[in-house]
Amino acid sequence: MNRLFRSVLGLFAAPRLNVREDYAKVRRFQQHVAALSGPRYRPVYRQTAADVGTHRIPVRVFQPKEKRRDEVLLFFHGGGWVTGDIESYTPACATMADLTGCVVASVDYRLAPEHPFPAGLEDCFNVARLVLEDPQRAGIASAANVVLVGDSAGGNLAAAVSLMLRERGHRGASRQVLLYPVTHWDHDPATSPFASVRHHGEDYRLTSMEVQDYFDLYVPDHQQRRNHLVAPLMAPDLSGQPKTLLITAELDLLCDEGEAYGEALAEAGSEVRFHRVDGALHGFIALPRFSRSLREAYEVVNAFLDEDSDEDSTVAGRPGGSSRPGRQDAP
């Protein structure tokens, strides 16, 4: 990437935050922005909840302007497990519904630090379990129509939910879409095994320090961060996982670890499609609908959804590099 392009992109860098001190301010800002756009999106969704014992987990269901598919996208939002909610992600979920033609169900899981690991993950797991075990009750024709989707920390949660469903003996989703997910525990440029952490950990949309701050709030116990339900790349067994679409952003410090997780899934026998969005920053799924990065990503998502989930096809190769035998890039 040339210096001029890098300088221009630097203008879009997020303000540097001390996440551990400022997370409450970030939440208030997100809620304020959502309130400003709320009337535009309110007609397209309805509010419901999943009841787990005495605990209610809010779920917001978005209807597309034109329903073109039977799939229901069960969505876990990003925000470092600390910020973000169904309010702040309403514009992104409305866009997701319209551009895929699918119903989108957004889960309002509990956030750290008030509710550290595994509280938010258990919320996501319980909603997924209920929907997959009794889809008709949720208004879904078949469990095969349920697709797990998550971005950033939400991609981490989607991956972890898939692992939990298999480990606890429940029916799993047949497909998952992981958007620039967190899959590893180490984001220190001095020790991380991933080049993207060193190349992009101080620039643009998300920094290494911010990710480490999020981890401090989500998983205060450093030893527990190597738990595979925190860092899916640490899982000793990745067999039996869903057909996966792995979308990464070229200029994101999480790029390499996301693709490494896809490689690990493929080596364990899962069918994986990769797509790296060139020139994209972390969090592009929340950009306006005219954004090139967002449009490109949804073209790939739609192609993935149109594939027969039961087809016996080859596994995709790592984007941006040479393909191994028997692998191909996402359509």
UniProtKB/TrEMBL annotation:
Top-level taxon of the source organism: Bacteria
Species of origin: Citricoccus alkalitolerans
SUPFAM superfamilies according to UniProt: alpha/beta-Hydrolases (SSF53474)
Protease recorded as keyword: no
Region listing for Disordered, in residue ranges: 308-331
Name of the protein in question: Alpha/beta hydrolase
PANTHER family tied to this protein: AB HYDROLASE SUPERFAMILY PROTEIN C4A8.06C, ALPHA_BETA HYDROLASE FOLD-3 DOMAIN-CONTAINING PROTEIN-RELATED
Molecular function, one GO term: hydrolase activity
Domain Alpha/beta hydrolase fold-3, first and last residues per copy: 73-285
Keywords carried by this UniProt record: Hydrolase
